[in-house]
Description:
This protein is an alpha/beta fold. The protein contains seven helices and five strands.
Amino acid sequence: xxxxxLLPPSKVTSHHKTVAVFPGSFDPVTFGHIDLxxxxxxxxxxxxxxxxxxxxxxxxxxxxxxxxxxxxxxxxNSQVKVETFEGLLINYLVKRECHVIIRGLRAVSDFEYEFxxxxxxxxxxPGIETFFMASxxxxxxxxxxxxxxxxxxxxxxxxxxxxxxxxxxxxxYPSR
Length: 176
Ligand code: PNS
């Protein structure tokens, strides 16, 4: 693969908006994600929530359903855009002429994988930087996987996800 080329941020951000990409599976988006997206939008002019389309083989929600939920939650915030991407994340950033990836860290256990991914992404595209944000202490235990497990067993997920997502989860597990 030829190395993706991107101008250093200093060459382009002075007269451009600073845009950050917040990538993930979002199957489904949780309050933990929402908190990180909102806080990112305070720091950056625009945050693109990039929903990975080829991650899990058997997701609970389709990519379009995931996008609709995130768009619905952030309909009041014009700084937040929602898109999907396929293949390598850095190729998507190069295409969008964006230099910043934001990832959340909930606990030390997240760090090893996240660090590995950040280093690999920087090796593939040296102009792209990963910024880590500490998740809110309120949501350190929240993950999409835990939400799905709890919901599938009839547990209450209202403290973990937006009401719009809770409603959609109920359509997936109607008997609960
Ligand atoms: O919400 P997740 O599942 O933790 O998100 C992980 C995601 C989608 C951001 C990551 O797996 C990713 O970037 N996938 C695209 C393929 C890629 O570029 N992988 C990293 C370099 S090998």
